[in-house]
Write a structure and sequence with these properties.
The chain is of the alpha+beta class. It contains three helices and four strands. The chain has a four-stranded mixed β-sheet with strand order 1-2-3-4. Helix 2 links the parallel strand 3 and strand 4.
Length: about 130
């Protein structure tokens, strides 16, 4: 079984290959923030929560992700495989090149994993 650490390392190395940063978020006194802040040249930014395969967010993490989305940020949930890391990278590359797909940001994409912006993916957050 793949460990969360390996997924996170693959994400970090892949973002670095794009010339970006994949920063580990540590917010003392504030729980539930996504694991990683991804910054790509050209002003591309998103958050990613990495997990061990099959794991999902805890209730507090889902709540914080919902709030971030309501503020207009892009958040990738349950990045638990190399395939999902590739989905994050594809999104970053499209944003960097100024390319978006029809409906992107309001519905899920390949494998149901592309993020939603400004819309909570889970109910009962507030």
């Amino acid at each position: 079984m793949m460990l969360e650490k390996r997924v996170e390392q693959h994400l970090r190395d892949s973002v670095r290959a794009l010339g970006g940063w994949c920063l580990k978020l540590v917010c003392p006194g504030f729980t539930g923030m996504p694991d990683r802040l991804i910054l790509i040249p050209g002003g591309v930014m998103c958050f990613a929560e990495t997990k061990r395969p099959g794991q999902t967010e805890r209730q507090r993490q889902a709540f914080v992700q919902s709030r971030l989305r309501k503020m207009g940020f892009t958040v990738f949930s349950s990045v638990d495989s190399w395939r999902k890391v590739d989905d994050v990278l594809e999104w970053c590359i499209r944003r960097k090149c100024g390319v978006t797909l029809e409906g992107e940001g309001t519905s899920s994409g390949p494998a149901g994993h592309l993020p939603q912006r400004g819309k909570a993916s889970r109910g009962g957050d507030d």
